[in-house]
Specification:
about 140 residues, alpha+beta, Thiol Ester Dehydrase, Chain A, 5-stranded antiparallel β-sheet, elongated
């Protein structure tokens, strides 16, 4: 019996990077509806522990989604089933985020893959850690 799903096996990786701009943060606020001033108002943010606007936590989580959706199995259908997240450090405009998703378990019978998911900044600081489960199917 095969020990992979669509070519994925324990240890397979998907990596995606993106530079974060102030415009990206504002677009995310508009699309998501999360207009909390911490993300858009420098005067407000200056009074917080962060001293400047920060990106939404889910913006960083979106980098994981991009890695899974575009890099994990590019010729297959990847369907998100679950994601656990721990937000560990803030992200600001000017940071470059890299999501590294590593396969930890393969369920060939159900076409499911479990992954360790980590997002780091350009200096190696871990900003998000978690795990995900996806279904990976051949394109019909």
């Amino acid at each position: 019996m095969a020990d992979n799903v669509q070519g994925l096996e324990v240890g397979s990786k998907a990596i995606f990077s993106k530079a974060v701009t102030a415009a990206d943060i504002l677009k995310f606020a508009e699309v998501s509806g999360d207009t909390n001033a911490l993300h858009s108002d420098p005067a407000y943010a200056a009074r917080t522990r962060f001293k400047q606007p920060i990106a939404h936590g889910m913006f960083g989580a979106g980098i994981i989604s991009a890695a899974l959706g575009t890099r994990l199995a590019p010729t297959s259908v990847v369907i998100y089933l679950g994601q656990n997240l721990q937000f560990r450090a803030p992200v600001m405009a000017g940071d470059t985020l890299t999501a590294t998703c590593t396969v930890t378990k393969v369920d060939t019978e159900r076409s499911r893959v479990s992954l360790d998911t980590v997002v780091t900044k350009q200096d190696g600081t871990e900003v998000i850690r978690g795990d995900a489960t996806v279904m990976v199917e051949a394109l019909g």
